[in-house]
TrEMBL record:
Sorted UniProt keywords: Disulfide bond, EGF-like domain, Membrane, Repeat, Transmembrane, Transmembrane helix
Domain of life: Eukaryota
Organism per entry: Rotaria sordida
Record's protein name: EGF-like domain-containing protein
Transmembrane segments: 89-111
Keyword Transmembrane: yes
Annotated EGF-like domain residues: 37-74
Family matches, as PROSITE patterns: EGF_1, EGF_2, EGF_3
Amino acid sequence: MISSSTTRTQGNCSEISNSTFLCICDDGWQGIHCESMINFCHNVTCENKGVCRSLLLNYRCECLGNNYYGHHCEFTSKKIITYKIVSTSFAYIAIIALIIVAMFIIIMNILKYCFGIDSTQEDSKRYRREKQARKRKHPVIERFVYVNAPPQISK
C-alpha cells in the first residue's frame, strides 16, 4: 500500500510491489515523492548583478533598479551609458589640466635655472622694497588733547 506520506499533489505515485512504488512527477517537479520544484536557475547567469528567480516551468532574471533590462539583464539603459561617457570625459579633462599645470611649472623652472630668465624677479624686488620701507618707518608719537579738560596747575 502507498502511504499518504508518499503521495504528493505534484505527481501520481503507483505501487509496484508491497515495498516499492513509482512516482511520475508533474512538469516542473522532481524527487522520489515529487517533493521539490526543479531549479531552472541552476545553469543560468543573470548579468549586471541581476537575481534569478525560479518559476514553475521557467525562470526570470530580476534586474536591480531601472538601469538594466532584458531576459538576462544584459542590456544597459541609455542613462547609464550617458553617465559613463560623461564621467570618462571629465576624467580626461582633469588629466589634461594636471599635465598642463605640471608642464607650466617645469617650463618656468627651465627658464629660471637654465636660461636665467625669472619672470617674477621684478615682482619679488618690488615686494622686498615695500617690506623694507615699512620696517624703516619710525613710529609716530601723538599727543592727545582732551576737550573740556581741567586746566593744569603748574608749580
